[in-house]
Design a protein that fits this description.
- The chain is of the alpha+beta class.
- The protein is built from 4 helices and 8 strands, in the order E-H-E-E-E-E-H-E-E-H-E-H.
- It has a single domain, classed as Pnp Oxidase, Chain A, CATH 2.30.110.10.
- Strand 6 and strand 7 form a beta hairpin.
Length: about 180
């Protein structure tokens, strides 16, 4: 039932656009390091071209994906149909972390809503695009986006977010380098 695609075609692009949530997986090279799997939402995903995607990484307590991109670049995205016909779509690739102040930042950030908690953009060039059935994924109904991250960032303010990133996003759980400029 599963199929491998050369590029993100229009059918896959529409499927991606219709999902309210996606997952990002990455891992360090070390066999005893932590594999990271994070849910994402808030209209933070963009298809840049048929083999390149990006997502807006918002400030949080960990910096695993950024650290893994800096160390080895391996990344997988998973989109699940929680509504409608069952389907999973995985995007495998090599990514990089782009921070505010990097030359590509201004062009890339224009693909996303403005969020004061934006800390990086993860851009990935895809090596493999594949779908599968998703029969085991339960049906869920979307109620709405959570507001807590935006409210937290608003309360912290620009200086507070900068201090939070410096305290929490300099290194990963495995001690890998995180943000270059918290």
């Amino acid at each position: 039932m599963g199929k491998v695609f050369e590029v993100i075609d229009e059918r896959n692009a529409e499927f991606i656009r219709n999902q309210r949530m996606f997952f990002v997986a990455s891992a360090p090279l070390s066999g005893d390091g932590f594999v990271n799997l994070s849910p994402k939402g808030l209209e933070s995903f963009a298809i840049l071209d048929p083999t390149t995607v990006a997502y807006l990484d918002l400030t949080g307590s960990g910096i695993e994906t950024v650290a893994h991109m800096r160390e080895n670049g391996r990344i997988t995205f998973l989109f699940c149909a929680f509504e409608g016909p069952p389907r999973l779509l995985r995007l495998y690739g090599r990514g990089e972390a782009i921070e505010p102040g990097d030359p590509e930042w201004d062009a890339l950030v224009s693909h996303f809503p403005a969020y004061s908690s934006a800390r990086s953009i993860i851009r990935a060039r895809l090596d493999r695009i594949a779908d599968s059935c998703g029969y085991g994924v339960p049906l869920y109904s979307f109620e709405g986006e959570r507001s807590q991250l935006h409210e937290w960032a608003e309360r912290k303010g620009e200086a507070g977010i900068r201090e939070y990133k410096a305290d929490n996003n300099a290194t990963s759980l495995d001690g890998l380098a995180g943000l270059r400029r918290p």
